[in-house]
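Discussion board: Methods & Data

I've been asked by a reviewer to show the raw model output for two of the constructs in my manuscript, not just the figures. I'm not sure how much to include, so I'm pasting the format here to get opinions. Each protein appears as its amino acid sequence followed by a line of discrete structure tokens. Is this the kind of thing reviewers expect to see in a supplement, or should I convert it first? Here is construct A:
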Amino acid sequence: MTVSRRTLCIVYGLIAVLALIGTWGNNMAYLSLGFLGANQKFWGDTLANPASRSITVDIFFLSLAVLVWMVLEARRLRMRGVWLYVVFGFLVAISVTVPIFLINRERRLAQVEAQGANAMGGADAAGLALLGIAFAVYAVLTLLHGGQ
């Protein structure tokens, strides 16, 4: 692995650690409510005001663009387990799993040269479409919630 790739991995790792501390330092406040209660309170709090609604919609659609790229890049580089990054992105934090994906991407690029893009599979497209629909529904809900 080249020095520049190794440096990128260190930077991505630092970002992931800081994101984990930053997100879960705040998420801990919800854990005493149990899984369902924590999720209800957390997602309800994202609707609290125009700023929270705006940043949540922004993060969702940025995440969707990044996830589309991640799936395509994983397929191009023949990286396995790309959907684990998606799932853990929602269970842990997308700001944690994307840098981890980038570390593994750098490791993969160091192993082999990219061999041309593989087409995205139907299951990949369906999964990303479902996420897009869910994010769009949330965006509509935030707009409907705007008067409150």
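Construct B, same format:
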Amino acid sequence: MAAITRRNFARAAGATALSYSRILGANDRVRIGYIGLGNRGDQVQDAFLEHGDQETVALCDLRDDYLDWAEAKERKRGLAPRRFKDYRKLLEIKDMDAVVICTPDHWHALQFIDACRAGKDVYVEKPLSLTVYEGRRMVEVARETGRVTQVGIHRRSAPFLIEAAEFVRSGGIGHVLVARGFHYRNEWPHGIGDPPDTNPPDEWEWDQWLGPAPKVPYNRNRTYYNFRWFYHYSGGQLTNFGVHYMDMLRWAMNLEWPKSVTAIGGKYAVEDNREIPDTLEVLWDYEGGHIINFSQCDCNMAPGNAQNAEMILRGTKGTMYIHFSHWEVVPEEINDRPRYPRSPVDREGERANRGRRVKLIEARRAKGSQDTAFHARNFLDCVKSRARCNCDILDGHISTAATLIGNIAHRTRSHLVWDGKAERFTNNEEANRWLHYEYRPPYKLS
């Protein structure tokens, strides 16, 4: 399979952004409003700008500099989108088809639900929610309102990864027993640092940034990108990176809910004011004989395996290694006879029954790109067709919830049995209290 890059993406999608602009009138374009434009919001905006059949009509963020940056990109295209600091005002715009939500995790549920009820289709970044209860309510409201939804787990739309998932689901590497995702980086010794609490630069902005989260003293590490290291706003690297791996692996293995989960780890080495672990191992057990593992180490960047893959799926016929821009399958050598019991008095019998080593599959390899522009393209197409997106709200919820219950297992130091239909633990009532939290007034999840 040929590599697909940002440069030749438009050709793979069927038309260039420029050709879309030429053949489609203003009424054929999907009119979009953006809520949250820092870091990932900036990247997702760029992904949508790859496509000429969309138009930015509004921008919303608490920071003027983020708004300025996003607006400058639109002005180069001859657009002058409206600016807001209150997302609810943005949702009042009538001539707007969809919104893109890239705010911190603890804001996703409120903004998503409000957008659905305002009649907008929604692209919401991963992880979908901060709690399992939020995610389930988001699914319910999306279905009640009939909105098109896409969760920003963008690997679902990458052609070379679609091929990888189809190969595994078709039995290409046999029965997959163990699948692993790796998140290794070296933040030792200082990590994100340990700044003191101070007065916020802007009291109103800090209050609005916190939203439904508890009111706590301002600390610059709690805001913007570094919020991911604090449980009030994020599930840490397990939900940040881990949800990508969880989703890809269960998608390829055709799995839904785990039947149990356990986790070990802690803050072992990094000297900063984070709350999340710097070292974490999580195991999910699935019906049918499948284990998924997430491995996090923030104190060492050496390859997690010989192939230095992001993910590994180990099947009875072979092993798939998934990298950022390619995947490969290494066949297993299978003995065509049962294993002979070793005995010091029967060496001849052991040699006679040793059998042949055979490979049941061939080695395979494919290259490609994980560019978010593929995912944006799929969302735009589904807004027009009303089909379900590649990572519809339910898929995003199941994958996100799996990582969230992994955090609960770690924080309660428990092996937890999970009922996916009821979305509750059956062996630990205390753990069920972690499935949601009480919002700070006046915020309510309805």
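Answer (T.O., handling editor elsewhere):
This is acceptable in a supplement if you add a one-line summary per construct. For B, something like: The mean pLDDT is 92.
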